[in-house]
Amino acid sequence: MKTSTFPSLRVKLELREAAESVLRDGETLTSLIETAVRDTIHRRRTQDEFLARGLRSSEDAKSSGLYHAAKAVHAELQQRLDDRRKQVLG
User: What is the three-class DSSP state of 82?
Assistant: First the structure.
């Protein structure tokens, strides 16, 4: 697999020192930056997918006329959370 590089990044000394201060054993500044970029890409894709699902759901509700009360949705989610807690915590 071919590799590529990111452009050089100029930062204030304080930011570099802060980044270096949180490095874990065996971790390099380069690997920290790579992880941060990967995590940001994943988070943004997840956010985009979430928004797209929400917009589709809104359009579906408009076209079907079927809406759910927030109170009912919150109650169902709370019940799911309570059930899961009982499963996990006993």
Answer: helix
